[in-house]
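Hey, can you fold this one?
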Amino acid sequence: MTNVGLIQSACSVDPEENLKKTLAAAESAAGKGAQIICTQELFRSQYFCQSEDHNFFQLAEPIPGPTTDAFQKLAQKRQVVVVASLFEKRAAGVYHNTAIIIDADGALLGRYRKMHIPDDPLYYEKFYFTPGDLGFRAWQTRYGKIGVLICWDQWYPEAARLTALRGAQILFYPTAIGWHPTEKEKYGAAQYSAWETMQRSHAIANGCYLAAANRVGHEAPAGGAGIEFWGQSFVVAPSGEVIARGSVDREEIVLAEIEWARIDESRTHWPFLRDRRVDAYAGIDQRLID
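Sure. Predicted structure:
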């Protein structure tokens, strides 16, 4: 058994305040028995990608850097694995939406750079982030082999599959997703259902656990209607069953117990990986087959 803790919180305009709050939440999660702790996407700031503003590049930091150092100290102190989402400054003019993976001894195991970058109303990420160049990976931690993807990656079965094929037993998705307030009444239920359905399908198709950590609260750093983040961070078992879920409007730590035997059980009873026709998938690496 391994316990997972997802940190679901609201963010202020003060990066240091957000860092202190998230570190405190991680301490609390460890105190409640969490052994693998995951933050929401870009937790150090409000979701700034709602506008294209060069001033927001000042929020970025190097890796390793101050936030990495703080979480390495926490991981070593509490003997926990940490997945933390950061705005990475790689070099002048090259920035990434990145998650760091820290083992329970405080060692920085690696990083994942978000591969799929959206450009939608209030999600203008292409202005800020260079697409990831590290591919899809999995890391052996003290408490299990984990894969990490980020938010928009959630809509791509190829990303989940390739991460699972590298041995990931849990897929973690730091996330920042919500409603446009003017669309919520008409589309809100369907939008949330689509998001959850995609994540449950990844768990089923790959016979693994999945954990998505999302933020809560209303944010409008660029003015206007802003985004109402829908929280509801959740953990899915290999069967597709949601075994833990957060609220839609509260800051909290979502805890779930991972039973490793369920992965073997799922993959032997539903042997989707065994029955893949890898010889017949030519063309999957093309944009379209005309």
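The chain has a mean pLDDT of 97. Let me know if you want another pass with a different chain boundary.
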